[in-house]
Fold each of these.
Amino acid sequence: MGFEMALDFPRHLLELEALTRPQIEGLLSLAARFKRERARARAGEAQTDRRSLLRGRNVITLFFETSTRTRSSFEVAAKALGADVLAFQKDASSVAKGESLEDTVRNLDAIGADALVVRHPAAGAPRLVARAVRASVINAGDGAHEHPTQGLLDALSLRERWGTLEGKIVAIVGDIAHSRVARSNIHCLSKLGAHVRVGGPSTLIPSGIEELGCTVARSLREALTGADAVMALRIQNERIADARLPGARDYARTWGLNARTLEMLPKEALVLHPGPVNRGVEMSSDVLDSPRSLVMDQVDSGVAVRMAVLALCLRAEVPA
Amino acid sequence: MIILDSGRVIDPASRIDGTRTVLIDGDHIREVREQPATPAEKLVHQVIDCRGRWVLPGLVDLHVHLREPGEEGKETIATGARAAVAGGVTTAVAMPNTKPVCDSAAVVRFVAARGREAGFARVIPAGAITRGSLGEQLADMAELKEAGCACVTDDGRPVMSAGVMRRALEYARDLDLPVMVHAEDLTLSAGGAMNEGPVATRLGLSGVPAAAEVAMVQRDILLAETVGARLHVAHVSAKGSVRAIREAKARGVRITAEAAPHHFTLTDDAVAGVLPTSAAGQPAGEPYDTHAKMSPPLRAESDRQAIIAGLSDGTIEAIATDHAPHGALDKQVEFVHAPNGVIGLETSLALTLALVRAGELPLGRAVERLTVGPARCFDLPYGTLAAGAPADVVVVDAEKEWKVDPQRFYSRSRNSPFSGWTLRGKAVRTFVAGRLVHEEGK
């Protein structure tokens, strides 16, 4: 019996909010296997060839926003499973004026996509795509809604360190309002038994975020005290233009993670960042490069998680 | 003569709710009497048996977008007016945000003439407050009024300048012309796609705070109060607006208000594909359903309750649809890119009756909000069955259960958030000026 049968994983991965804990745990177990196999291969030990899993299948990455890491991570993952990969880069603004999203994806579907990996600036766009095509749709980030594989890879890195997320406290600090990473992490981590705190200036905390199952910390100290891990989110310059922040320096003074503020965090606690990092704004270099930083491990987890997602959504038969 | 025999006549303007017979003589009401049609009358006149039916004044809808001139692919005056009478609406005030904007007598006369040619609901144009609805210079309000406008409004494009609004209110006051406001502070609503709150946060959509509406309602109340003008607040969506209007009324400000069926039936949960418990059993849409997108947006349950309370206590005197047709392709896009607006002419009566059945609004009040309430906002001589009044009448089968199928709408557009709903109550015959303009099933 294939791995996926026991999981009953959905064909589309649109959001983590809709997944059950067993679905997430099953996926993480598969991803952990892939990650170990990759580590052994890198170390020159046993090679596990997974290229038969998706041989002959077409994975199309369709990005309406620029991205380097997520997209290359998906492409490496698809290739590691033997899939053929086709990359489409579209400018969402020109699409809005011309061909509709639905028409665009129907065409790609007709070309013969088995999976469409979609990143789009509009929240909900992957759902619109899923309604229009036969292919499996994998959300690679939609507006400020969700970034499911990011939530999963963060959970994988943390689970590997801790064994379980049950009872752990994870603080997410920064621009929660515009962050799909925050939303996916809140859903994913809390489903796995962790408690999520979010923190940042009130201008960046969206109204009613508590209803997603997290608590809101009103200061960095409140966010970090007793936390088992802290994740800093990228602060973008647009937040200064739209009057949500006075400036990067003022943000760093109150919410930035640096050697001084990290004193508030327990010694053994971990530090994460979904990247790309503004060094010296939300996180200082010494923190980013410290032994407690999981940032590089997150990238490694990313490929493994995306392999697992593709394998499960495309119903690959993974031998035990 | 046409005799509507022995129906349950509900005419709040005349304080009637009981079995009556309505006599229509030409284009006006001759009499509403207790005595049923006599055998002699049955020989001479057209007698329509209305036993088991309700007989109401034709509905008055102060807020519809008929899209003509300029966007005839979405709706025309003829299709919109036809949809109106199918919904029991006999008077529709057409918003001026057409292409070109209705800011001159020429456009007013065009709209009115098209309405007369169509021969369904009465179509009364609303003129613009400012030239081109650009919010800068005053439109020719005297000319607009003379040409037949019921009010002026820059609906959809709020007058952001308090200075311009103050002058507009003063000028309109001299003409005794009501000023209808689409209350929205664009600096507060900028970028928002739905109501600000937990649902928007969960879906990752930018929010429009209730304050965007309430702040403008407060501003315009202050200005109208200062200059003594008549203010009409369109599509009230927020609890704070209801409170502000209620307080202004208590102070004697000349203010009226309307609310739309979607705002008293749905909440912002509908954007996530979730219906309020009061709509249990109705089919919910999908998350990011663009048919739940309009301006002002669907709000929270407490706002919905406040609107119902406002309708009940008279703070809000009119139910108006804000009927806003859009093509299927316009709505079949990413939520943030979808245009605002839903259609409502063919569902407003049944949705209002649903409030009555839920015990949230007394029947007499509901009928008042659909008829004489709105008529009085703009001094229209409709919305009543009083002797001598224009014979705009709707015969309603209050028990008729029907499924909302937008494909069968008379409107040219299909963008209803109530598709697939099972509703009760339908206009079975609609008369405008004594003429039968709609008969259900015909």
Note: The first strand of chain B starts at residue 2 and ends at 11.
Amino acid sequence: MKITLHMVATLTFVGVIAGASLSLVSGWAQPLIDANETKVKMAGVVEVVPGGAASKPVSEVAPGPASGDPLEAYQVLDGQGQVLGWAVIGEGTGFSDKIRLMVGVSPDLGHTLGIKILKDSETPGLGTKIREGAYPDQFFGRGRPAPSLEAGPLAVVKSAPGAPNEVQAITGATISSKAVVSIVNQSVSALRSRIGQGEANR
Amino acid sequence: MKGQVSARQEILKGLWDQNPTLRQLLGMCPTLAITTSAINGVAMGLAVIFVLICSNLMISLVRRLVPNQVRIAAYIVIIATFVTVVDLTMKARFPELSSSLGAFIPLIVVNCIILGRAEAFASKNGPWRSVLDAVGMGAGFTVSLTFLASLREILGNGTLFGVTLFPAWEPWVVMILPAGGFLTLGLILGGVNLINRSHEASRRRALVEASRAAAGFALPGAAAGTPARGEA
């Protein structure tokens, strides 16, 4: 009986001390962690819409549901308050886990302006080429005009793209390339229907 | 055992003789998973050193107060607390490093090296020696991981700590993939065993010759006539 009491008391004591010290550390760290996440996101917003200086959430432009808004998008403005485009955050299944990305779109949703991968677990050296290099450069319109969203959703091709809505896949990482394009398509169509709704309500 | 081992030996044993990664083969999971770039190896190693020192010290201090039946439970709670501190600190201060190490920082809780040293050393020795042990073991882990990660980064990416070494190098992507981790680790383990075996052999040969000389065993002509048998 005495040993049982001793065991319970020891574990309780260890647990209480551990919990108390962790709540202290967490109280210090959590605001910093949140600030880091916001900073990464805001840097991305300005990155995917080149020349962007400020941004405001889509809910201020085209209100959605009051709570649990599934669409995370920002209208990006330059220093003079001119609308440069949109930055939409989307998520979908990649090769090994979820890919989370931000895509920049022109104000009329006619073509892409840029892309940034926020989170992925793709294969190092293959699928991770979605982060930088020739593949994302296509969305920025480097080398050839940025893929057009006017004729319908983007499509992935394995050879040099011919049609204006085509994106060339990464050699050896077709699944990752297709995943990115399908997330971009979903995000753009979600934004399109929201803005369309906003205009109809007005 | 106490008293005979100097403080210096307590630290040095973790670097070579009892190296946790290369001799005890503990903590293989982070060793294979995160060694895709040298900076990851260093960061993982430093995180483990911190957790190891704190947990060894704490466990050594409470070793007489914790009843034997619940010692593992108590150790795990203590270890998990320090790991969470490291995880939160890295997320707050070094977000990029934290995202590249991913789940492997929280998984230090179940790293066999930490619980292994708690159970095998800190629960039986005083605080000062436990800290020395933790420093040695942690340094051994860090050096091994950094070495492994440097090889993989150089061959698989042509860079070291992110600095391009060979601009014309066509990277061997396989070295960054899991297969490259197994290959590199296997070759390093083989190399370490080879070095240890040749040390052992030459030490034994020296011993045999010394005892022969002492016993006046050196028969005339024997050295030239019979083949050396010390190798076996």
Note: The longest helix of chain B spans residues 178-214.
Amino acid sequence: MTDFLNDWGLVLVTFLPLVGALVMLAIPAAEEKAHKQLALLASLASLVVGVLLVADFDYGAAGTLQYGVDKPWIDVINSRFILGLDGISLPLMALTLVVVPLCVIYSWDHIPEPGNPKAFFILMLILETGMVGTFVAQDLILFFVFFEVVLLPMFFMIAVWGGENRRYASIKFFLFTLFGSALMLLSFLALFFLSTDPATGESLRTFDMRALSDVAGAGILGATQTWIFAGMFIGFGVKVPMFPFHTWLPDAHTEAPTVGSVILAAILLKLGTYGFVRIAVPMLPDGAETWAPWIGLLAVIGIIYGALGCLAQTDMKRLIAFSSVAHMGFVMLGIATLTDFGINAAIFGMVAHGIITGMLFFLAGSVKERYHTLEIRRLGGMLVQAPRMGWILGFCSMASLGLPGLAGFWGEFPAILSAYSPAEGLPVETFRTYMVVAAVGTVLAAGYLLWLLQRTAMGAPREEFVDSDEIVDVTRTEWIAWAPLLVGILLFGLVPGLIFDVTDPAVVGLLANGG
Amino acid sequence: MLGSVLTLAFERPAIDWHAIAPELTLLGFGALLTLVDILWLERGRAVVSALASFGLLASMVPLLTLAWDGADRSTFWGAYVVDDYSLVMKAVFLLAGYVVVLLSTNYIAEGDYWENEYYQMLLSAVLGMVVMASARDLVTIFVALELLSIPAYLMATWRKRDLRSNEAGLKYYLMGVFASAVLLYGMSLLYGAAGSTMLTDIDAAISGDGAPLAVVTLGVIFVVVGFGFKVSAFPFHTWAPDTYEGAPTPVTAFLSVASKAAGFVALLSLVFVGFWGRADVYQPLMWALAAASMFGGNLMALRQTNLVRLLAYSGVAQAGYMLAPLAVAGESLATADDALSSVVTYLAIYAAMNLGAFAVVIAVARRTASAEIDTYKGLFRYSPGLAVAMTIFLMALAGIPPLGGWFAKFEIVLALISPGTPWGVALGVIVAINSVIALYYYARIASHMWVEAPPVDEGFDTTTPIKPPTSVSAALILTGAATLAFGILPQWVGHFTEVTLITALPG
């Protein structure tokens, strides 16, 4: 079994969804049932391989890349097809593999207007290949290609199945992210040309991420590193999104169909933060040190700005979108400390935010379906009309505001704590100030989430909806799609070691090279 | 050589028949087409397009044997060189010509146009391009240029009862002749400085310190400007939108791909063989042309409402991307190879994706009789296959992975960054910014096709799928497969386009 997984595990887990999409291409669009089944089958097949990988993974050596695949790909530019899985990739890959099948299940009887499940599911499966591929790719060009593969499907998902303002939102999303990745690519090329082998002093001319992390920017002058890091900063920062590059996010989230929002929040945003952890920080330690105070500053601005934005929103989905800006701020603050503690917290924060906010977007979608509106002042009394859904909303809000015992806590609290003692060479006072500001942010988070809960779930149902027979409690498909996420929120909240133990060796290993 | 011209004595050069076999095959099929026309008259119409496409493919055979043989060949006193670079470019021209025949078959047959002559013109234009790929001497380059241009002027006016087509042809002709004149003037200056028309001699003569700087500078600028018209670089692009819109669409496809590529082939030979030593002259010129073409083409494309005009302006920008590596080509031998390979790669991938985009335009226009972008609204609803194909080609042109265009742009940026000079890096950033500007208009068309509802009362059916004729479908499949394959397995194209013109030179 291990032999098979060594050779084929990562290839299968990445490309099985794509195979499913290709099979679906050959089947006429009228066979809607077949398309749903095939999409579920392909994403579950990928999940099964993923479960085998997670079970077989050598946790004692979580710091080293396992199941490595290394094949020639584009010889003319020294780029190779390299895949590998370590403790940083594993939780994010697992998150992707779980979320996509749940989205397929949720879409079973929720295909958004204008229908066409064939195209919808094909796009979703291509997205999955792109996302999983990004998390396991170990070659910069391969990473770049997977990173970009997600753009087109998400663009069309928003543009075709989105809300009223979908054209504007989809093109904005596309342009912002492409701008970022174009600059990111320039930085990758600079790394390619400038990285040298410290032992021989020769130019490496490689895109192999393992080698580039090992040399950790050796031979690149500090000033040059600052510039190269700036390119990656914009590339990954747009995707995260960090203040001030975040403006595409509320539009994209508001207009995207429910599962589009879920995938966007749960996974796509993580591609950016993953890029910081995997590429920018370990490969350019000097550049990272120069930029870290600024990243921290933008992160805490994001935390406060996102929270204030939430307080001002009148639309439930837009509110959740702004809360993403705030939460990703905590993740970025953890990364900005450049300590293993902070980056571990950041990775936990990514997974926690993925599960919790993904779940909140599912809820928003179901609310919209029942009430045909997401305007907060028109909602109310959900606990009366659909008590289970109301309670789930309460549970997720608590998780999102960082209640101890639920997953959100372990993403926020250690990130704030890590800012108390940032890595050597970083201004301690500055980071301690950030810590205080971020702590204020958690209070604001509690404020907007409880206020949301109070206005939507509590009180008496509004008159216009009292007699509506569309407002039913959680349906069976919704239970199936949501249960794993709800269990995850509780489980990772109670046993955070499940993730910390996996990520820690890998993070320590990545940072050690820079020293 | 000069002496032999003065005394008018003719000395027959040693001819390497194998080296010119592809050209002879093309010429033979062109003559055959003429014979068919004379002997069979109207009955010949049934076979001419098949014969033309067969001729283009048959010319690939000697190309393959030459590639198999592998040795670089030189004939006609070195004016005609067959090396890896010229073989790759010849293959691009022949295959692009083949796809154009596929696109033309129904268009020309159904339109009551002269059919036989059309394919004769097409073959002789391709012949000019194939010769251009091997030409290493000013006279040969000029003859090849006219051989490909004159048929192209005629083809642009092929819809002769249509005023716009006449306008297209006339504009193209006047601008083209003007460019030829400028080019010839530049060539005469270079000849004056070097005393020879051979590119290698010119390089040797103008590289030294003793070369008259003013004459050389003017000569290089005029020659580059002359080809700037051919590749439709800004600000010499003004003929392109009108000509593209008025000419028959398959001819437009031919002009925008093959004719542009031929201009680039000449520029590459000139820069890497003829002007190599004068980087101080051509590098700033290329830098300015590239930057102006990228910004000019992309910004003007933003405002277009007609898809063919939009593709014309996007073609101006694409020419800018391809000119960019020439702005750093003279930094070092390694950079020169990178730059050459990147342009050749771009030309090959660009041929696939741009021909594909025109194939969709032709297929859709059979239903809508228009290329206005508004008529593409809702295409995904009633003809999803064509909408997906168009999306693939447009996004490839925009450079979105995993579609072919990304690797083309990547190679360009790689070449720009490799010498590490501030000018190179700055141009790399300009390429990156322009990719984002360009995405806006490509994505706008995509969202027209996918998001909007089909137009009503436009006078065409928007309920049943458009069924393109077999030959157009074949062209779509060929170009679509190439666009995808080049993006996912770039080694397939990268292996062939890793060519050199420099290391063959002495010193």
Note: The radius of gyration of chain B is 22 Å.
